[in-house]
Amino acid sequence: MTAARRVGARIHTPAKINLTLRILARRPSGFHELETVFQAIGLWDTLEVELRDEPRIELAVRGADVGPARDNLVTRAASAFLEAADLRSGFAIVLDKGIPAGAGLGGGSSDAGATLRLLDALHPGRVGPGELHDIAAGLGSDVPFFAAGLGRSLGFGRGERLRPLGPLPPAWLVLGLPAVHVATGPAYGSLAKSREAVGGAVPPSLFGNGAAAPTDWAATAAMAVNDFETVVPARYPAVARALEALRETGAEIALLSGSGAAVFAVFADRGAAESALEAVSPQCPDTRFVVVPTLGRVPGLNEPRPTV
């Protein structure tokens, strides 16, 4: 017998970039302390959920092959929510992928965070905010940012401790997507080896001692750093070429996002970004470039994606 279908909902969930990513000391657990500024951008996945009477989770993915459904962060997030909420119902979930995997844009984390936001909205009060955050943090370091539905935030610890920030003035990105996959674990390993080779020193904190977070693009540019740039471009020539091409446009900020492979440059308006895209695309045939906006806020349950 087919499971009964009831109320459904949709949520659009964005990618992120890291406007700052500083990798600090390694914890005894093996995780590194880090400082980052998360920024949501207009590159999207979409989730649709139907509640079902049968206590089972079904996931269908369209637009990309992301492996077995049982291993997907969406399934894991839904399972954790179902257990925490003590629900006897289930979910049928459809995930439409637009965010590439292995790019440092938080695609899987975004999906998991959106799943928690969506199910929390459909079952208000069944899971408290603190427990919801703990579920998100247990799924991945970036998941709490997406579960909170923030446009911009400082991230500390593994990235799971958040300090929400107000929006920066609207801006446009040229986002480069090299045709390579960068695994985060090996990237951390390469960074650790490169530091050990020069004595093991870690860079200083950017936001320690009460330092204020940047409130405009000029201050953001002054703190724009990604420590993975010391190792990732050297191992992936396509990433190095795309990053260099973006820097040659004269953009005030041009960085690797996360551990890569995505790179980005920030421009004040869409016209400048589109001109830059035309300039860099012929130089990097192994990289797809797109123009996307930064986001001041993230859509909620059943809200449309922002129009630009």
Summarize this structure as a short list of keywords or feature phrases:
single chain, alpha+beta, Alpha-Beta Plaits, 30% helix
Structure commentary:
With 308 residues, the protein is α+β, with helices and mostly antiparallel strands. It has 2 domains: 5-164, Ribosomal Protein S5, domain 2; 172-203 and 214-293, GHMP kinase, C-terminal domain (Alpha-Beta Plaits, 2-Layer Sandwich), CATH 3.30.70.890. The protein has 9 helices and 10 strands. The chain has helices at 73-85, 107-122, 129-139, 143-147, 184-196, 217-222, 232-235, 237-248, 270-280; strands spanning 5-26, 32-52, 57-62, 90-96, 152-156, 161-164, 172-178, 254-256, 263-267, 287-293. A hairpin with a 6-residue loop joins strand 8 (254-256) and strand 9. The model has no long low-confidence stretch (mean pLDDT 92).
In DSSP terms (H or I, runs of 4 or more residues), the helix count works out at: 9
Largest sheet: 6 strands, mixed
Shape: globular
Order of helices and strands: EEEHEHHHEEEHHHHEEHE
Bin the strand percentage: 25-35%
State the CATH architecture of the largest domain. Answer: 2-Layer Sandwich
Q: What is the CATH topology descriptor of the largest domain? A: Ribosomal Protein S5, domain 2
**Oligomeric organization of the protein chains:** single chain
Describe, in short, the structure shown.
This protein is an alpha+beta fold and 308 residues long.
SSE diagram, text form:
Blueprint (H helix, E strand, L loop, with lengths): L4 E22 L5 E21 L4 E6 L10 H13 L4 E7 L10 H16 L6 H11 L3 H5 L4 E5 L4 E4 L7 E7 L5 H13 L20 H6 L9 H4 L1 H12 L5 E3 L6 E5 L2 H11 L6 E7 L15
Parallel strand pairs: 3-4
Antiparallel strand pairs: 1-2, 2-4, 2-5, 5-6, 7-9, 7-10, 8-9
Helix pairs in contact: 1-2, 1-3
